[in-house]
Structure formats: C-alpha cells, structure tokens
Amino acid sequence: MKFGIVVNEGPYTHQASDSAYQFTRAALEKGHEIYRVFFYHDGVNNGTRLSVPPQDERNIQSNWTELAKQHKLDLVVCVAAAQRRGILDESEAKRAGKNADNIAPGFRISGLGQLIETGIESDRVVAFGD
Amino acid sequence: MSILHTVNKSPFEKSTFRSCLDHAKSGDAVLLIEDGVYAATKGTAAAKLIAARNGDLALYALAADLAARGISETSVIEGVSVVDYGGFVDLVAGHDVSQAWL
Lengths: 130, 102
Known about the structure:
Chain A is α/β, with parallel strands linked by helices and 130 residues long. Chain A is built from five helices and five strands, in the order βαβαβααβαβ. Chain A has one domain: Hypothetical Protein Ychn, Chain: A (3-Layer(aba) Sandwich). The longest helix of chain A has 14 residues, at 16-29. The two termini of chain A are 26 Å apart. Chain B has a single domain (3-101), classed as Hypothetical Protein Ychn, Chain: A, CATH 3.40.1260.10. Chain B contains four helices and five strands; from the N terminus they run βαβαβαβαβ. The radius of gyration of chain B is 12 Å and the shape is globular.
C-alpha cells in the first residue's frame, strides 16, 4: 500500500516528528511504499542540516536523511513555510539574496501542490502534529 | 467507510479525546498515541468516557508511548488493545481513512 506522511511540527519540541519517523520505518519494514513525506508549518525545521544535538542524543534531522537515503524517500518541505523559518536551498537562498543555504541532504523544497498530490496518489495519508 | 482516529493529547490537557469519541461512529477505531495514552489508564474520568462506548469502538494504545510514560500494560483499561508501531501501520492500512485529532 502507498502511504503519504504529513509532519506539522519541528523536532524536539513536540513528539510529532519522532512518531512520524517511527511510523514511516515500521511501514517500510512491513513492505509498504512511502509515496512522500511532506513537512509543513513548523515541520519544515526537520529539514535543516545545521542542527547539532548532543552526540548521545538522537539526531532527528539526520535520522530522516538516513532513512531517505536507504529507501529513496521523497522528503518535501513546503516552500512558504520554509521561507518564513529560514530553511533555504541553494536556489531559494540566491533568489532571496541570502549568503547561505541549510537544506539537509535528502530533503527538497517544493509547494503545497505536492501535498495535494500526496493525497491523490497515496492509498492512506497519516498526519502527525501537535 | 471505517475511520481510524488518532488522539495524541492527554484527555486532562485537551478536549480532543472527548471530541473524537463524540464524532466517532460505531465500527471506527481510536488509537491513542503520544500523551493520548493517558486516556487508556484505569480509574480516571477518561475511563468512564471509554466505558460509555464499550464494544462500540475498537480502542488501541501505542506500546512505546505507554512505556515512555511509565504506564504498565496492567494499568491499561480492559478492552483497550496495546499495539506496536507495526500494529499502528496495520490499523492505518485496515481503515479507509485516518483522522488525526490534532
């Protein structure tokens, strides 16, 4: 079955991203397909490569990156939510006149159309938030 | 059409659990995750809400979130089934729609 995952909260403050990650792993282990993981609202903060949590603590952002690498996941960050929160890729940084970008490997920035498409193309959509 | 409802907040903090029970139809399932698992503990006001729907809804609580909060399975209300993340996936697959009460 094709699953779409929506993550509406950032890492560490809420459990949403942890729950979504564990759910995604379990779905993959059961042989399901993850059509896309869409990060919306504060959820876009899961897509920065600049966070440096203590080494003995889970790294939520890099966990997503690793999972994406292993399973070729499509991790999409909402562009408008990302711009407000300073999550930029190279082209967005250039467009906004910023001197750096911070999108994590495995993530890409796109629009809400990708969320709609997730709803159309997935058999099930599961949302995680506050 | 059957719906899987997920509730992630304690019934003593937010009203989402009550709203969920008020909206859930016979044959739906409710999965308690994160702080929502507090609704699955015996002897609370929330337990009475669950008892009022007994047999009407399928109730589940996520094992990892119970364990993270020190709630042993013996403290869980009878009739609430404890599932792992794999069980969560099966519940989503087994219902037509998932509704997260955020």
